Each structure stands twice: as structure tokens, then as C-alpha cells.
């Protein structure tokens, strides 16, 4: 069964799914970010919700200056080395990898696994 169909079926059947607790909005300019934030606040206000001031962050991803962790991944813009070497152009891509917190949890789980003796 496809996930999309399953979700629609559950919602239609009166099953309540957990509300979204995390939101990322990517904008190309500071002005677009401000407009997006106003719109998000309006929409959340109509739903009786609001952005948590202590958890709301504005991160500048341009030129690889900053990054952020989201759902177990670290996200940051990185310059493409091959394009710089071949064409002399600075091109940035959004890259992701496991966050330090996620890696720590994986290491703890691996340490808790029984050791294989190698004997059959």
C-alpha cells in the first residue's frame, strides 16, 4: 500500500495524526525571509498556534556561513570543489550528513550489541 494512500485513508477515517512540530522555510533573500515569517505567523495564528520565540532561528546559509540540525541531519551549504577547479566558479550546494547527536546515539547502540565471537 502506498504511503500517500495510507495517510489519506487514516485521516479520512477519523484517525488523528501527530501535529508537525518542526518547520524549515528556505528563502533566497532577507526580504523574502521576512515575508515568509509574516505569512507563517499569520497561518499559525489562524490555527491557534504560534512560533516558539526561544526555538525559532534564522540561519544564513549563503556562502556556507552557517548551518543547522534538523531531524537528525546537519545541513550546511558547501562549495563544489570540482566546479571551482574546472571552471573557477563558486557554486554552493546544500549538503546533509548525520548530526553529531545522531552519531552519538548510533555509537551507544552499537556498543550495546553483543560481541560476535566468530565461532560457528
Ends distance: 40 Å
Low-pLDDT segments, ≥5 res: 1-11
Run of helices and strands? HHEEHEH
Helix content: 25-40%
How is the largest sheet built, in terms of strand order?
Answer: 1-2-3
Number of helices: 4
* Strand residue percentage: 15-25%
Question: Major sheet, described briefly?
Answer: 3 strands, antiparallel
Counting helices, strands and paired strands, the structural category is alpha+beta
> Outline, from the CA principal axes?
flat
Estimate the mean pLDDT confidence. 80
Count of strand segments: 3
Q: Taking Cα atoms only, what radius of gyration do you get, to the nearest Å?
A: 21 Å
Overview of the molecule:
- The protein is α+β, with helices and mostly antiparallel strands and 120 residues long.
- It has helices at 3-12, 30-46, 81-87, 100-111, and strands at 67-70, 73-79, 92-98.
- Strands 1-2-3 form a three-stranded antiparallel β-sheet.
- Strand 1 and strand 2 form a beta hairpin.
- The two termini are 40 Å apart.
Keywords for this structure?
single chain, 120 residues, alpha+beta, three-stranded antiparallel sheet, 4 helices, 15% strand, flat
Short description:
This protein has 120 residues and is an alpha+beta fold.
Task: Describe how the helices and strands are arranged.
Blueprint: H1 3-12, H2 30-46, E1 67-70, E2 73-79, H3 81-87, E3 92-98, H4 100-111
Antiparallel strand pairs: 1-2, 2-3
